[in-house]
Amino acid sequence: MPIVLIVAEQQPDGALRKATLNALAAGAQLAQKAGAELHAVALGKDVAALAEQLKQHGPKVVHAAASPAFEHYLAETYAPAVAELAQSLKADFVGAASTALGKDLMPRVAARLKAAMASDVMKFDGSGADITFTRPMWAGNVIADVKLATPVKAFTVRATEFQPAPAGGSGEVKAFSPTAAPSGATKFVEFKEVKSARPELTEARVVVSGGRGTKGDFKEIEALADELGAAVGASRAVCDAGWVPNDLQVGQTGKVVAPQLYVAAGISGAIQHLAGMKGSKTIVAINKDPEAPIFQVADYGIVGDLFKVLPELRAAIKAAR
Amino acid sequence: MKILVTAKRVEDPESKIKVKPDGSGIVQEGMKYKINPFDEIAVEEGLRLTAKHGGELVVVSIGAKEVQEQLRHALAMGAHKAVWINHAGPLDQMAIAALLQKVAEKEKPDLVILGKQSIDDDQNQVGQYLAEFLGWGQATFASKAESFESDAEKNKVPAIAVGADNKSVKVVREVDGGLATVECQLPAVVTTDLRLNLPRYASLMGIQKAKSKPMEELQPSALGVDVAPKMTVVKMTAPPSRKAGIKVPDVAALVDKLKNEAKVI
Q1: Helices marked H in chain A — which ranges?
Q2: What CATH number did the domain enclosing A246 receive?
Q3: Angle between helix B126-134 and helix B93-107 axes, rounded to 10 deg
Q4: Which residue among A154, A175, A196 closes a domain?
C-alpha cells in the first residue's frame, strides 16, 4: 500500500507544534485520495511523549527517532534521517507543515529522494498516483494546480487551509534508528525566543495590524489585540521604520495570514500588504483617508482616527461579550 | 572570499498580477520586471562581505536574454562578474538548483547566497536543494539581530559573521518564535530573509562601470543538466475576489456587524 509520511515538529520547548496537526489532516486527505496509509515521523532528543500524542491524531504508524543528535533541529541532521525512513518505507509522498522548519527541511529531504516538490499546498485533488496539488503563487494573487512527475513527491502544506486532525485514533509507535551519519558541517549555536503572550501571527484566529497611521505608537493596537486574544501585525513601512520588530510584517515579503478576523488600523493598503492578508475571512479597516485602497478589500470600514476608534472599539467589544 | 549570488528576473512586486483567461499563465503586457527582492538582499550582503573581507562577487541568473538586465543591475550595484545561463522556457526548482550546482562547481565560491524564495513561484526550495546537491551546510532565512535603524546598518556592516580563520560563518536565522543562530563550515549555502539588510541603489557611476564588466554565457546542455520540468503548472486561476464591503458610521454599528453578521466576535 502506498504511504504518505508526515514529518512532525517539536518546538524548542519540547511541545508539539500545532501546525503539525493541520499537516496530519492534510496528510489524511491526501492518503484518502491516493489510496494510501498515513504515517508520521517524530525526531528529537526525546520523542516518547510526542509520539504518544501523535498516534491519536490519525497516523497508522508513528516512527519515533530519538537521538542526542536531534536535540537541536538542523536540516543537515534531520534530512538524511527522514529520507532514509521514506526510502525504507517506500513512501510515495513526504510532507510537513509549511513552518520555518518545514520550509527549511523538506526541499533538502526532496533533494535526497530526487523528488519534485510543491510548497504551501492548500488542496489535493485526483486519485492514486495522479495527484494535483493546489498552491499559491505571486503571494496568493494566483492559485496554481501543479503536478509532480517524480516517483516520490514532496510537499509542505499551508496550515490555515486544513482543520487540525482531531484526537481519537490509535496508531502504533515504532522506534526508528537512522544509520546515516550527519556531516557536522553546520552546528547549532543558540535559539533566542522572542517572548510573546500573544498567538503566533500565522496561526492566530484574529490579527490586529497597524500601519503608518500609528506613527509608531502601537499601544492601542496591542490593547485591542489583547482584548481579542489576537496576534499583532504591521505593514512593511512600519517595520522598515524600525517602529516594531521585523517578524510582525504582514505582506508579500513578510508573513501571509488568513485569520477569521483581520483588523487593519492606519494601513493604506499597498498591493504588497494586501497580498499578505486578503485571504482573511472578515476584514475591518480603520483609516483617516476615505480613499485608502484598504477599503477596497475590507468588509467593514470606518473612516476616522485610529487613536479615537480603537479605544472605543475595544470598550464596545468588551461590552458586547 | 569568493561569493556567488543569484539575481532572478521577476515581476515588479508593486505590479498587479492578472491571470490570463485561459489559465495558461499571467498577463505580461505592460509588466515591469526587477531583480527578485530577496535576491537583491543577497547581492547587497555579498557586496558587504567582499568589501569587508576582500574577494570577488559573482552574480548568476537563468533565463532568456532579458535577464541580462538584472545581471547588469547587480553589476551596477557593485558585483564583479556575471554568469548568464541562457535558457528560455519553464524550469522547476530542482532543475534550477542543478544548474546552480554546476556554476558553483565551476566558480568554487566559499559562499552561495540566494533569496529565500522568488516572489513569482514562492516555492522557497532552491537554496535547500542546492545545499544538498553540493553536500554543503545550509542556513536559510538569514536575518539581522539589530534593527534597520542601527549604526551597523547605516555603515553597511554585513550581518553574516565570518569566523576568524575564514573557514566558517555564523548566521542568525528567522524562525518561528524567535531567532536561531547556526555556524556553517565553508563552503555553505545561505538564503536571505527580508530582514538581513537594506539593499543599496545603483549609482550612476556604477551603471557606467557595469557596462564593461564581464558577463559569461553558458548553455544548460553544455553544463550537462537535464532541465525538463518534473513539476508542471497545469492551470492558473485567480483567487476568489473580494468585494469591497461597506463603510459603517460608527463603532457601535461595526461591533453589531462583527457580532451578528460576520459572527467573528
Answers
A1: 19-34, 48-54, 75-89, 100-112, 219-228, 236-240, 271-277, 306-320
A2: 3.40.50.1220
A3: 50
A4: A175
Average pLDDT over every residue of A136-155: 95
Chain A contact probe: residue of B12, B112, B125 with most A CBs at under 10 A: B125
- Please indicate, yes or no, whether residues A170 and A237 belong to a single structural domain of this protein: no
Q: How many residues does chain B have?
A: 265
Count of the separate structural domains present in chain A = 2
Kindly list the domain boundaries of chain B, sorted by start residue: 2-237
Rounded Cα distance between A126 and A234, Å, is: 38
| Interface check A23 vs B, CB under 8 A | no
- Contact (Cβ atoms closer than 8 angstroms) between residue A39 and residue A4: yes
- The whole-model pTM stands at 0.92
B158 min Cα distance to partner chain A (Å): 18
> Is residue A188 domain-resident?
no
Question: Which residues from chain B sit within 8 angstroms of residue A104, using beta carbons?
Answer: 128, 138, 140-141, 175
Using one digit for the tens of pLDDT, what is the confidence trace for A199-226? Answer: 888 888 999 999 999 999 999 999 999 9
- Per-residue pLDDT band at A80 (split at 50, 70, 90): very high
Interface contact B14-A272, CB threshold 8 A: yes
Does one domain contain both A131 and A272? Answer: no
What was the ipTM of the complex prediction? 0.95
Of A108, A190, A242, the CB nearest to B149: A242
Topology at the third CATH level for domain B2-237? Rossmann fold (3.40.50)
Interchain CB contact of B21 with A (< 8 Å): no
Domain for residue A101, yes or no? yes
Range B82-111 average pLDDT: 98
Q: Label residue A167 by pLDDT band (50, 70, 90).
A: very high
CA-based nearest distance B3→chain A, Å:
18
Q: How many CB atoms lie within 10 A of CB B216?
A: 14
> At CA B198, angle to CA B192 and CA B204, rounded to 5?
120
Q: What is the mean pLDDT of residues B41-68?
A: 98
Spell out where A149-203 has E strands. 153-157, 172-175, 186-193
Kindly state whether residues A119 and A224 are assigned to the same domain: no
